[in-house]
Design brief:
The structure is a single chain. It contains nine helices and ten strands. It has about 325 residues and is of the alpha+beta class. The strands form three sheets. The chain has a five-stranded mixed beta sheet, with helices on one face. Strands 1-2-3 form a three-stranded antiparallel beta sheet, with helices on one face. It has a two-stranded antiparallel ribbon with strand order 4-6. Strand 2 and strand 3 form a beta hairpin. Helix 3 packs antiparallel against helix 4, helix 4 packs parallel to helix 8 and helix 6 runs antiparallel to helix 8. The longest helix has about 35 residues. It starts with about 20 loop residues before the first helix and ends with a helix. The relative contact order is 0.09. Bound molecules: adenosine-5'-diphosphate (ADP). Adenosine-5'-diphosphate binds next to helix 6 and helix 8.
């Protein structure tokens, strides 16, 4: 070893040695040692990722390049980079594409199937024709929902900071969202109640509208006949609190930590039947993170679910109360 910088010793594959003369003084990793030898012998560059299982789950990218100059003859430069976050992001992106394609395939297959049946002129019964057209429309709506949610997620990820925050009253947004979903709720005899105090935050209106709508939509969708939804807002110290509470089917305890993941659903069939995309809560999580808020979830199977979100209160509203 001609030169080694201290940063190398932060990587678990390396250990400091008082006199580091050879590579094997500072690492036992066979893959590294043999790639450096191969590089020196063949004068060809090598690059690869080190197996993460051996490095506390960290992924290191190794690059070995041959060098030859006045100060060193037939040498090699070894560069180690921690690419854990990078590789994880790549994996998440790959999984997302696979999931999104899979999710879109289901409605497309149904649309093709029903339209081929109708196109072949084999369905005489008008009742059946209407039924199939209805199914095509429902599947097309599902696809449209999935694509809209994907676009929303990608724009949330792109613009980390809110663009033009304005002073918003959470309570007022709850009242408006409740009005939009009243018809849907009435179909199941679910009642929506808005309660609490005027509660102000600085935010982009469409973000908060989307957040409240997604939570309320779920509270209605996963409710029971004759159930109830409560939207409660109140200021608390420096915080603005929003609670969305329902008397619905609840979420099983083992699923609780996973419901914010993209495309995760407790019951796929049920979610699809009610027009769910599996993306609603991950959009909620992104929006809360964008405003550096806190999100918590409590749920009991067969009893109901309660989401609590704490935002930073708008500075302009603090002096009023
Ligand atoms: P979806 O579009 O399927 O509703 P979400 O991301 O909004 O997707 O929610 C993920 C899953 O969490 C849902 O499929 C459902 O199983 C569960 N879930 C969300 N909200 C509720 C709720 N209020 N009550 C019961 N289950 C819920």
């Amino acid at each position: 070893i001609v030169y080694v910088n201290r940063t190398v010793f932060h990587f678990s594959a390396f250990h400091p040695a008082e006199y580091a003369r050879t590579l094997s003084d500072i690492t036992d990793n066979e893959q590294i040692i043999s790639s450096v030898h191969a590089c020196v012998l063949t004068k060809s560059s090598q690059s690869y990722d080190l197996d993460s299982a051996e490095n506390d789950g960290k992924i290191y990218s190794i690059s070995v390049t041959p060098v030859s100059g006045e100060w060193i003859a037939d040498g090699a430069i070894l560069i180690i980079t921690d690419v854990t976050h990078f590789r994880q992001a790549e994996r998440i992106r790959r999984e997302f594409f696979a999931n999104a394609s899979h999710e879109l395939k289901t409605p497309i297959t149904a649309i093709l199937g029903f339209s081929e049946l109708l196109g072949a002129g084999l369905v005489d019964d008008m009742e059946k024709v209407y039924e199939y057209v209805g199914r095509i429309q429902k599947q097309a709506r599902n696809m449209s929902n999935i694509i809209n949610d994907i676009l929303r997620l990608s724009s949330l990820e792109e613009k980390k900071e809110p663009q033009t925050p304005v002073l918003l009253n959470l309570r007022q947004i709850c009242t408006e969202a409740a009005a939009v979903l009243t018809t849907e709720a009435q179909k199941k005899n679910v009642t929506i109640h808005v309660d609490g105090k005027d509660t102000y935050i600085d935010a982009q209106r469409e973000d908060i509208w989307q957040l409240v709508l997604n939570l309320l939509d779920n509270a209605v969708k996963y409710n029971v006949e004759g159930g109830r939804v409560d939207l409660i807002t109140y200021p608390e110290g420096d915080h603005a609190v929003l609670i969305v509470k329902d008397t619905g089917i609840g979420i099983p305890a083992p699923d609780l930590p996973r419901v914010f993941e993209r495309f995760y659903r407790v019951d796929k069939g049920r979610s699809r039947a009610v027009g769910g995309t599996g993306l609603g809560l991950s959009i909620v999580k992104h929006i809360v993170a964008r405003y550096k808020g806190e999100l918590s979830l409590q749920s009991k199977l067969g009893v109901g679910t309660e989401f609590t979100i704490r935002f930073h209160r708008a500075a302009a509203s603090k002096k009023d109360t």
